[in-house]
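FAQ

Q: What does a record look like?
A: Structure on top, sequence underneath. For example:
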């Protein structure tokens, strides 16, 4: 089992899937650099019914962030494009070279960059939603629970911009890393396959969304699989209780009979329909 991120639809086929609404794709937009390497995202702009809002997708599975040809990733994003959302697929510095704290820092910068250049993409910077699955769901919740307004004294104009988002949707996210890192008594053998979880306990606590929930968090949808053994549904229960305590608008779904995948490849799956409905409610 793996921390799944589904971006390999028809991978390797070389086939561009025709859709009712083919977007305008801008690949490999650079939003920052580290160690001489570019940090990039892909832009998918709807050509019809654009509603001015955007969905920012975290390309992350096990905190590995892999590049996929945008045309091959398109089926995953088509349900949101069909609703008029601009989609950004954000890649972060990948494990094993980079750690979870660095991945969190990268995706925060990506949100800042998109907000700074929102006019160029014809999106409203106050209507950004963020979506991720598994490790990507963890990063999504970190964006939702630990955002800031930017550093007005920063030399880099990107760092002066807020990284706040208007809504989040997290699928099978680990919400408390202190039970998952290798040194945790509760850590399971499968986690040894993820070098990012070889993390000091203090950093695990600092980068656990559960520890950052506050009353100013954006509306959050969390979907767990009832039979998920990799990220058990209690992760969703924990953060839903924290949202409830702080009166954050939220919805927790524990999908019956579902494992870690949630059938996100299927455009009419329950998980996809719930995410679309959530963004339509809170972004449109």
């Amino acid at each position: 089992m793996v921390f799944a991120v589904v971006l390999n639809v028809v991978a390797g086929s070389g086939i561009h899937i025709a859709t009712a609404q083919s977007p305008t794709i801008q690949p490999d937009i650079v939003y920052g650099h580290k160690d001489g390497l570019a940090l990039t995202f892909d832009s998918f702009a709807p050509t019809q019914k654009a509603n001015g809002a955007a969905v920012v997708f975290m390309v992350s599975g096990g905190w590995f962030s892999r590049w996929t040809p945008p045309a091959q990733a398109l089926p995953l994003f088509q349900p949101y494009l069909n609703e008029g959302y601009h989609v950004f697929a954000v890649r972060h510095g990948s494990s094993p070279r980079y750690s979870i704290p660095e991945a969190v820092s990268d995706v925060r910068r990506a949100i800042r960059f998109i907000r700074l250049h929102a006019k160029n993409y014809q999106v409203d910077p106050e209507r950004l939603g963020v979506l991720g699955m598994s490790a990507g769901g963890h990063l999504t919740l970190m964006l939702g629970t630990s955002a800031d307004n930017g550093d007005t004294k920063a030399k880099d104009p990107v760092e002066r911009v807020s990284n706040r988002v208007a809504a989040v949707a997290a699928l099978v996210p680990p919400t408390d890393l202190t039970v998952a890192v290798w040194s945790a008594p509760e850590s399971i053998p499968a986690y040894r396959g993820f070098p990012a979880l070889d993390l000091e306990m203090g950093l695990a606590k600092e980068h656990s969304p559960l520890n950052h929930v506050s009353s100013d968090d954006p509306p959050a949808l969390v979907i767990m699989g009832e039979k998920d053994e990799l990220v058990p549904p209690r992760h969703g229960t924990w953060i839903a209780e924290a949202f409830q305590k702080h009166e954050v608008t939220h919805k927790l779904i524990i999908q019956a009979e579902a494992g870690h995948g949630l059938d996100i490849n299927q455009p009419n799956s329950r998980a996809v329909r719930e995410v679309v409905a959530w963004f339509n409610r809170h972004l449109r």
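Q: Is there anything notable about this one?
A: Residues 1-20 have pLDDT under 50 and may be disordered.
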